[in-house]
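Tokens in:
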């Protein structure tokens, strides 16, 4: 029984590929090889700028597209984040091949950047729908409207009950 549990534990489909801080000079980019030549995977990447420019973005692309980018020719991107101080990229790669994750600091105004990058691969297929949170102002709005509706219904019911009791 223990050997079966160890085999199941060893066949995990989730791999943490990168959890490191990258130095990206101003106006340049760095990349991470994903190594998906044998089978496709779900890519999850998060970054947070520790110092420098807050105009950094992540881009998932094929290796051929990175070579075109290096030669300053038009290149394609599978998925990308908006330029910001932090970001999250989620993408299901459907075909095995050579893919890279690009950390792009070309929009910076002459400032080098230090960014913490975390990348994981899940070979078990795309996890369920991405669960997101509402922004705090929207959370407060939803709670306020819910309370208002609740108290309106409770007040209406109380008034009807009191009117019924007084008759």
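Residues out:
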């Amino acid at each position: 029984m223990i050997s079966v549990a160890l085999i199941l534990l060893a066949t995990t489909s989730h791999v943490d590929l990168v959890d490191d801080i990258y130095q990206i000079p101003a106006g340049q980019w760095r990349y991470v090889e994903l190594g998906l030549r044998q089978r496709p995977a779900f890519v999850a990447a998060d970054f947070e700028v520790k110092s420098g420019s807050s105009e950094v973005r992540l881009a998932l692309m094929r290796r051929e597209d990175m070579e075109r980018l290096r030669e300053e020719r038009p290149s394609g991107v599978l998925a990308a984040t908006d330029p910001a101080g932090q970001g999250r990229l989620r993408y299901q790669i459907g075909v095995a091949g050579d893919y890279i994750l690009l950390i792009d600091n070309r929009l910076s105004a002459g400032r080098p950047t230090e960014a913490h990058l975390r990348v994981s691969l899940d070979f078990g297929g795309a996890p369920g729908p991405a669960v997101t949170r509402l922004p705090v102002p929207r959370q407060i709005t939803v709670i306020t409207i819910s309370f208002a509706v609740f108290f309106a219904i409770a007040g209406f019911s109380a008034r009807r009950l009191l009117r019924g009791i007084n008759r």
